[in-house]
Amino acid sequence: MHIGFIGLGKMGFNLVLNLLRHNHEVVGYDINETLVTDIKAEGAQGVNTLEALYNALPAPRILWLMIPAGPLVDKVIEQLLPFLQAGDIIIDGGNSHYQDSIRRYQQLKELGVGFIDCGTSGGTSGALEGACTMIGGDREVVEKVEPVFQQISVENGYLHTGPAGSGHFTKMVHNGVEYGMMQAIAEGFEVLEKSQFPIDHEAVAKVWNHGSVVRSWLMELTHSAFSKDPKLDSIRGVMHSSGEGKWTLETALDLGVPTPVIALSLLMRYRSLQEDTFSGKVVAALRNEFGGHAVEKSVDKE
Amino acid sequence: MHIGFIGLGKMGFNLVLNLLRHNHEVVGYDINETLVTDIKAEGAQGVNTLEALYNALPAPRILWLMIPAGPLVDKVIEQLLPFLQAGDIIIDGGNSHYQDSIRRYQQLKELGVGFIDCGTSGGTSGALEGACTMIGGDREVVEKVEPVFQQISVENGYLHTGPAGSGHFTKMVHNGVEYGMMQAIAEGFEVLEKSQFPIDHEAVAKVWNHGSVVRSWLMELTHSAFSKDPKLDSIRGVMHSSGEGKWTLETALDLGVPTPVIALSLLMRYRSLQEDTFSGKVVAALRNEFGGHAVEKSVDKE
Amino acid sequence: MHIGFIGLGKMGFNLVLNLLRHNHEVVGYDINETLVTDIKAEGAQGVNTLEALYNALPAPRILWLMIPAGPLVDKVIEQLLPFLQAGDIIIDGGNSHYQDSIRRYQQLKELGVGFIDCGTSGGTSGALEGACTMIGGDREVVEKVEPVFQQISVENGYLHTGPAGSGHFTKMVHNGVEYGMMQAIAEGFEVLEKSQFPIDHEAVAKVWNHGSVVRSWLMELTHSAFSKDPKLDSIRGVMHSSGEGKWTLETALDLGVPTPVIALSLLMRYRSLQEDTFSGKVVAALRNEFGGHAVEKSVDKE
Amino acid sequence: MHIGFIGLGKMGFNLVLNLLRHNHEVVGYDINETLVTDIKAEGAQGVNTLEALYNALPAPRILWLMIPAGPLVDKVIEQLLPFLQAGDIIIDGGNSHYQDSIRRYQQLKELGVGFIDCGTSGGTSGALEGACTMIGGDREVVEKVEPVFQQISVENGYLHTGPAGSGHFTKMVHNGVEYGMMQAIAEGFEVLEKSQFPIDHEAVAKVWNHGSVVRSWLMELTHSAFSKDPKLDSIRGVMHSSGEGKWTLETALDLGVPTPVIALSLLMRYRSLQEDTFSGKVVAALRNEFGGHAVEKSVDKE
Asked: What does UniProt give as the signal peptide span (chains A, B, C, D) (predicted)?
């Protein structure tokens, strides 16, 4: 199948390699021309404009976006609008908000253009060797590219989750669960680390991966991380996030679902970005006010 | 090797089968005589008193306890005390509190009796087919039974974690992590369930198990549960707990480790045991007091 | 001063009484004509249409809205639009989302109409006897009605918080803090209730109100509630909420502020609305899957 | 009444002044002799040994301890044991764990010595001008000193909560509630601080104290703190704690009471003591492992 691929970053590049391995003909585009050159070296066709991408594909076109969620997706769709014809299909493989995907689906449907929201999990290694894909969209549209999703996914790692938006929704919740699982694992290792016992984290992560209830890919990755740096001394505990955990919590609030573990996983990430906290200052000040407990001086003021 | 096995419940019975399969000679004991009869049918020797168990074993004896944590473990050790000889080894394979294990280790060490605390994970299927074992105790004592631990565990599923207590400590933290991972998964599926999409939970659990970041044994079990009951309609959401999550949190508090996800996983279990809450009554009463917001009448009083 | 008052519910009615007591001339309107009749009996003028309300006031008009937040506020403003003249002032005294207030401020500013967002705290008794008001809006507009705000508020209970939206923003955060304080109090009394001691909640709430660190109006209300129903037996612990707690958390997420206590206060309210939980079913099912722990049957299915 | 007072720290010193003002004759003792000299200057008798303290009092003696909770209380009681006579009364006015108080009550009861556990709230200013006291102990013993408790407390600020231990229990829970209220207030001000509005914290704390639902002594103290340092720039947000919040949570866990707000208030205090977290390192490492997300280098290693 001919596929136009927009966005050749860590995930996109590997997905293209994955597609090439399954004998698809890929035309790759990225604003970063180096990445276009690189993908050409791998056997794809490379172009430097969206127009060139569109024109390089036979009708109906399949256009796969693997770009940062948000306004950029709208911008790329807008730039494609002058060319798009009924029957074309746009796949958004990124981490877009599911409500944006529903909106884009409706916008494109009016033009006869199909839209598929594809949540893609498995990290960069999965993108290369077999991802997990959660697909939302009209059945008749999804069916046209279903074989491609199945090929680039691991066995049983493909699901048509339902109507437009459901793919990104399922992926969003997946990431919320992921936040919670990661924080649970991380808290456990901090308890081990602070304990009276001379714990070998790498060995514990390894044994927990063999036969225990908590065995999981995340535990394998934990093992891998400790095998490189036994106490993670080189890493700062700053936990960035890319939005899906926040969206999961916001969605849970809208749906009235109590999700304390997902909420706290997210809030502890926010907390990790702070050197000092205003809330901590207030509590310290209050303890001083009523109990005369000494406050610590702000570092900035010393 | 000759092994005396005390406690033939769900975990113990399967561990004995596992031992027998590896050609060990097991003498089994349980206060429930039916279980003794059953284990005899499987090829073990069965006895109905601890004295008989002890006498059926060649010196030095290996006595493996797989019984409920708490006073019962002390009681069984006390009942064995008249017989115990220097060189004997007691293995506690249950979920004892690590501080109890350290105390028992010291008590027995004075008699020259070895004590090993063995945290056992993997559930009943793991007990049968290959467990995950975390072993605390003196190296020279552990080495004497190490081959047995390795045989009954899956490959790489055995670890000598360190001194006495460290095995049960590591298992305790494992269970704390398990609570957090389970709650994270559970919250995610509740968001899916309450969403606008017609989610097929079984299909989602299956796809999340193939290539996604959250793939794990717990997700396989989630898939299994949904395959039997697609909406879990037959199950009440009452979450019991057996102590290790609470101990993990208590230990974290002693160590000054912030573990919000483990804490909330535990507190939501407690909450699930309540039909109504006193705290909820207080908040409802306060909203009525200041805002005139109507309260709902207690069901008991209607 | 002449004031047109729209919305004569629990809060609005009391605020009108408060205004009348300070010798303002109030024209009251509500869709519920009984409330209009009632307010006339208290000395206000009463009307049954917004047009009549508008026409009953001298220019420039002061129109005070005390109606449910959301689309209704937009609807009322829309119905007033044909009449509104430059120099008129609309005060929104309800719990509108601050972003809606900023939008309405801008919409009305283009017409030369002033808009003030007034967060009103203190409950129904405060509305009657002296409220706490947090006012956002242009200084020159706020100054025109400032004396009124000061009169209906307790001494020092009035603040011009800043530009449009800041009044409702400050009130929103106030309510977030209120959620947290209420939940903290409620949790404490549940610990007392479940303890081994024969606690007299009314007496404890009373003593905690006299000299202790936690003395507060909420504790006074707690005392009042227990004085009527010593164990709150007649009340169900269902905690409804009206939006500001959720908005505070959503705002905190947007600002990257970790607010675990406000988050959990809200999530426990959501939890209190559930008889059973899907997340609980998932955890119970998982415990059954790996450990053979019995599940409780769903009540619906028994 | 003659009272022997042991411990002349911030709380104890002020309580002695309070007692003197009510015309009690106080014999003061502290290991810090300067404090003994200081209290003599205020009109108390001062002594430098527990024996001298005991001998300076008429039988039956009233011995009031205001010393740090824990082993020191046991040590002081042990040092008093050679002198104690039936009929003497020991009052522990500190923040002892209620279970220790029950144990001490029983130990002393065997000697005919009365024991009263007195939880004291209100901070240092309350100790001086009128505290809030929660008293546990046998009715006939409490009655003997009841007038003293009433005099040093604000009006209605004294309560005999029940049997031995109940005073310290009630105070412990009070402090748990206090943690929650403080954290709620603190989170609210952090949301204000990070908002788009130019919030004047001092003014907000002041208006929230006049007529609002959250008016409270803690809010008065918040106002006081902001009046001295508008942004708390000089204070570091390190939140120490002295044990009662932890005990409240541990007690809640034992009683099966879900107390998420108290739990998180405590855990955020622990978090504030950490510059960096091991759990954060684990999450950052995991994000790097699966997504190639860059980690931040540990400061120590730069």
From this structure: none
Q: Give the containing element (helix H, strand E) for B34.
A: helix B33-41
Is residue C178 among the annotated active site residues? yes
Mutate one of A239, A242, A247, A257 to test the C interface: name it (highest C CB count within 10 A).
A257
pTM across the whole model: 0.96
Pick from B99, B91, B48: nearest CA to B70:
B99
Q: What angle do CA D133, D135, D136 make, to 5 degrees?
A: 160
- A171 reaches C (C-beta below 8 A): no
- pLDDT tens digits, chain C, 302 residues: what are they? 999 999 999 999 999 999 999 999 999 999 999 999 999 999 999 999 999 999 999 999 999 999 999 999 999 999 999 999 999 999 999 999 999 999 999 999 999 999 999 999 999 999 999 999 999 999 999 999 999 999 999 999 999 999 999 999 999 999 999 999 999 999 999 999 999 999 999 999 999 999 999 999 999 999 999 999 999 999 999 999 989 999 999 999 999 999 999 999 999 999 999 999 999 999 999 999 998 888 888 865 43
Q: Taking a C-beta distance cutoff of 8 angstroms, is the pair D92, D65 a contact?
A: yes
Q: Which helix (H) or strand (E) segment is A149 a member of?
A: helix A139-152
Cβ atoms of C150 and C144 closer than 8 Å: no
Complex ipTM more than 0.85, yes or no: yes
- Tell me whether residues A292 and D233 touch, CB distance under 8 A: no
Task: Classify residue C233 by burial, with Cβ atoms within 10 Å: 0-12, 13-18, 19+.
Answer: exposed
Q: Is A281 a catalytic residue?
A: no
DSSP per residue over C68-81, as a string?
-SSHHHHHHHHHHT
Please name which of B79, A119, D156, A235 lies closest in space to residue C219, comparing C-alpha atoms. D156
Q: What are the backbone angles phi and psi of residue D233, rounded to the nearest 5°? A: -60, -30
How does A178-203 read in b/e, with b if 16+ C-beta sit within 10 Å?
bbbbbbbbbbbbbbbbebebebbbbb
Q: Is the bond leading into C60 cis (omega within 30 degrees of zero)?
A: yes
- Shortest distance between the Cα of A262 and any Cα of chain C, in A, equals 11
Nearest residue, CB atoms, A261 vs list B184, B212, B213: B184
- Active-site residue, selected from the candidate residues A51, A178, A206, A220: A178
Structure tokens that stand for C298 in this block = 């769903």
Using alpha carbons, list the distances in angstroms from residue A284 to B250, D207, D272: 24, 22, 10
Nearest CA in chain B to C269: B280
Q: Distance between CA atoms of A154 and A145, rounded to whole angstroms?
A: 16
